[in-house]
Amino acid sequence: MIDYKQAGMRRSEYETTVRALGREPNETELRILGVMWSEHCSYKSTKPLLRTLPNKGERVWAGPGENAGIVDIGNGYGAAFKAESHNHPSAVAPYQGAATGVGGIIRDIIALGARPIASMDGLFFGDPSHPRTQSLSSGIVSGVAGYGNAVGVPTVGGKTLYDPSYSENPLLNALCLGIVRREDVISSKTAQPGQLVVILGSKTGRDGIAGAAFASVELSEDSKASRPSIQIGDPFIEKLLTEACLELRDKGLIVCMQDMGAAGITSSSSEIAAKSGVGMRIDFDKVPLRAEGMQPWEIALSESQERMLLIVQPEDYEKMAAIAERWGLDCAIIGEVTEGDRYVINWFGEEIVSLPASLIVDDCPEASWASRSPDYESAWTPREPSRSRDSSDMRDTLLRLLRSPSLADKSWIYDQYDSMVQTNTIVGPGAPVSLLRIRENGNMIAIALESDPWKCSLDPFRGGAESFAAGVRAVAAAGAVAIGATDCLNFPSPEKPEQFFELSEVVRGIAACGTELQCPVVSGNVSLYNESASGRILPTPVIGVVGLIEAPLSWIPSGNWKPGDRLYLVGKRESSLAGSHYQNVIDGKVSGRPMPFDPEMERSFGKLAHVTARKKLAQSARVLAGGGLAVALAKEALASGMGASLEIDPSTNDDVALFGEGGPRACYAVSEQDVAAFEETWRGFPCSYIGAAGGESLRFGSVSLPLDELRDAHSSVPENNGRRD
Fold first, then answer.
1. Distance of alpha carbon 598 from its chain centroid, rounded?
2. Active site annotation includes 86
3. What is the largest CA-CA distance in the chain?
4. Is 11-361 a CATH 3.40.190.10 domain?
């Protein structure tokens, strides 16, 4: 018999269990509660914070509490989307950790009855010169590609950043989006007594046992000891499972559906029971197994992949089983929905678990951690706010930024991905925003994935708001209206007061931005304890923003300069170097305080960007992000295959103007005939003419940077990143 500490519980949690049951739990019950009350499954440290996020809106069909969020995209169709982390598994087994992260988020979308049509990934790697970065980055990217390509869901974009804090603890955040008709949405809250509990998909083995508990603690120095917790994925089975579930949906044979992710059968079955307000009886001796001698607690907590739990009417089971057989999938009745709140597991006729479903899912005591603000004042002490630079300084700085791992070309990553399968991708990886065709209703979806950990480290409130606002700006510049967001909150241990303060303030910033910009956070994930013996990660919120472009379609691409186009900067020239890529690359450290969140400016920018797209007043648009104005112009020139003559003299402009970051700003390329209408549209908002497109060089006053030189810098491969030339 294990004790509560071995099960991963705190003493107070164990005492809560004993009081609720009126007895001591047996070993299987203790193991189940230990995993279900882990940080990964219960969110016990963040529930009060997550309640502050806006999650309602006129377009929201489903929000937190379902497998993913769903927003209305017109004509009776919804977009289901969510981001999930698979950080610890990717740190100890990069390929399988990343692959099963992709597989798991796809199943979350399927569980709602939606067909997955696109994936994105947020990748955070350490210093490219670190000895582990090569194996970690190449393995993780290969895992994303290997699974996504084989399962037939395009990987259409993402975000990749490098910082030494991720050297031992890389981050893999996976986002998936699917399409579903309103009448086809499947809920996890509609089970009724008398219905059958069915397992569909792969057999259950010992892989991934207690993976949720593993994801809720710091990585040990000897990560090899954690390898038994890593799941093994099979994308070909996942493809069969996808098609089988969608056929069952179309034939009306599914009452409820839940992915078997963290904590496997236990989480999926108890969550359906608790959310539906019913009880459940599971017969573990009826679960199809692929390993001999499995103990009941192993069956309960196995995280074997490619499995779904379905609730079906008794009269529909034979039809369902026939469909499963046609798709070559295992299918078995493993239990029944019952009256009341009792969750029971039987093992060859013996009752081995009897717990309230609500206790398992809802009654984990919330963790209360001390919060203390770090000494930000010393970090906010201004560095030299601006310094004049001569031509050689500007040239060298821009080329160094373009070569830096976080800003350099990422084609070594996305060239491994199939971004065009399903043929809905209009704009794929490499662009600021990914655009997807919605065949079902003629509209388009825009998706942006953003994160700014350096700014979060300097001012977590402003950094959280900036990470969210950056995604909203990006979809707005493309012509889309932001209609929903998902977040993945990657942080170190909340048990340290300064780190819990950081987490709390980032969430406060996200909540403020989502509320002010009327973009609800409809789904998400929290990943804590991202630290190892070598240190902690930066505070890393990853925000996925989904925007809608309604028919008749009118959108603005990036990298689409035409000869003679007039180039404009919209937004304030003033920005900040605090937490910027400039500081990381040139100064070697970040300092200062990022720009404050300005909701009125953000709203105005979004409104005018939509008007610009709707009236087709620009050829090309790119929001200013990492590297500021100079890097945005260089990327636009490279993507367009065309230079520009810019009315920006680097000898009289400082580093803040050229490389500062933050706030709603974008560069537009406008054809001659649209100049008057464009300027009139942006009247009242900062808008400056900065040059004209044309030629083979990017020219800043006396500085001339040939496109070939810019391309050579931008396409340089970070040392040891695993690229196969």
1. 24
2. yes
3. 85
4. no
For the full predicted model, state whether its pTM sits above 0.90. Answer: yes
Residue 331 structure tokens: 């299918």
703 contacts 650 by C-beta, under 8 angstroms:
yes
Q: Is 714 an annotated catalytic residue?
A: no
- Provide the residue ranges of all domains of the chain, joining segments of one domain with +: 11-361, 392-714
Q: How high is the pLDDT of residue 23? A: 95
Of 678, 461, 686, nearest to 575 by C-alpha is 686
Catalytic pick from 86, 88, 130, 581?
Answer: 86
How many Å apart are CA 235 and CA 136, to the nearest integer?
A: 21
Phi, psi of 69 (to 5 degrees): -85, 155
Give the model's pLDDT for residue 179: 98
Contacts of 148 (CB under 8 A, 6+ apart): 102, 119, 154, 155, 235, 417, 418
Q: Tell me the residue type at 332.
A: A
Average pLDDT, the chain: 93
Burial class (CB in 10 A: 0-12, 13-18, 19+), 420: exposed
Cα gap 116→81, rounded to integer Å? 9
Q: Are 544 and 120 in contact (CB under 8 A)?
A: yes
Q: How confident is the model at residue 720 (pLDDT cuts 50, 70, 90)?
A: very low
- How is domain 392-714 classified at the CATH fold level? 60s Ribosomal Protein L30; Chain: A; (3.30.1330)
Strand order in the sheet with 687-693: 620-623, 666-670, 566-570, 687-693, 644-646, 697-700, 703-706
Contact 627, 662 (CB under 8 A): no
Percentages of the chain per state (helix, strand, coil), in multiples of 5: 40, 25, 40
Listed residue (249, 247, 246, 236) closest to 306, CA to CA: 236
Strand order in the sheet with 256-259: 256-259, 307-312, 196-201, 330-338, 279-283, 342-347, 350-356
Of 566, 663, 583, nearest in space to 618 by CA: 566
- Mention every residue, 6+ apart, whose C-beta is less than 8 A from residue 477: 432, 433, 556, 558, 609, 613, 621, 622, 623, 666
In this prediction, residue 222 carries a pLDDT of 45
Q: What are phi and psi of 422, to 5 degrees?
A: 75, -10
pLDDT in tens, 556-601: 999 999 999 999 999 998 899 999 999 999 999 999 999 999 999 9
φ, ψ at 564 (rounded to 5°): 85, -5
Give the integer Cα–Cα distance in Å for 714 and 399: 8
